[in-house]
Amino acid sequence: MNTSPGTVGSDPVILATAGYDHTVRFWQAHSGICTRTVQHQDSQVNALEITPDRSMIAAAGYQHIRMYDLNSNNPNPVINYDGVSKNITSVGFHEDGRWMYTGGEDCMARIWDLRSRNLQCQRIFQVNAPINCVCLHPNQAELIVGDQSGAIHIWDLKTDHNEQLIPEPDVSVNAVHIDPDASYMAAINSSGNCYVWNLTGGIGDDVTQLIPKTKIPAHKRYALRCKFSPDSTYVLLILCFPNLLSNSAQCHKWV
């Protein structure tokens, strides 16, 4: 990777933040110093993700994704992806950076070919409710989609087949995550409950199968995120209180 001295891409650790102030900020993680700011003038930023080669960062907002160059001080987006009718709530990348995936409030998950000059999405997966979260399986061949109706969809990108499960009907699924070893999947919802499944299959032509493992009554109120630790031992659960003025986090461990 080519980086210029003093650019964000040259830092060993890239820390980026964004939100409703229409701004993306880059920070030195060790010092807390803001090293660069770019304006995201079209809308708030709902999600951020850095490309696997650390060359660009994707900022997902209302109706679009803007890609900013990390290896220059260019304040303007270098690539613009449009054509979505509502908020984009999730964004991520294939491990080789060949394509990008998104999910949004238009009830669609999309695949965008980053190698194509055509900046329109190449594939669409339609569900029946706005999408809150999308997670790529470590096998790079299945997308896990959580929506506001309480459904979790497993979209097989090889066959276009999909499976669905509903942990709690009509309780919004706010986040899903699979551990790095693809042994577990966790999902957390608006009731504050975190569900964990054992995963089998997902290799070759085998579709991933979910075996219920445990239900964690993690929070009494609205929960936002769940994340596994790199060693698959812990899951971190993030709670947001209804007044939006305070947050808390819990960490749960199992063997």
Automatic annotation (TrEMBL):
Pfam families: WD40. The keyword Repeat applies. Keywords: Cytoplasm, Repeat, WD repeat. GO terms for biological process: regulation of actin cytoskeleton organization; TOR signaling. WD repeats lie at residues 81-122. PROSITE patterns: WD_REPEATS_1, WD_REPEATS_2, WD_REPEATS_REGION. InterPro entries: MLST8, WD40/YVTN_repeat-like_dom_sf, WD40_repeat_CS, WD40_repeat_dom_sf, WD40_rpt. One of its GO terms (cellular component) is TORC2 complex. It is found in: Cytoplasm. Subunit of TORC1 and TORC2, which regulate cell growth and survival in response to nutrient and hormonal signals. Belongs to the WD repeat LST8 family. This is Target of rapamycin complex subunit lst8. It comes from Chiloscyllium punctatum (Brownbanded bambooshark). The lineage of its organism: Eukaryota, Metazoa, Chordata, Craniata, Vertebrata.
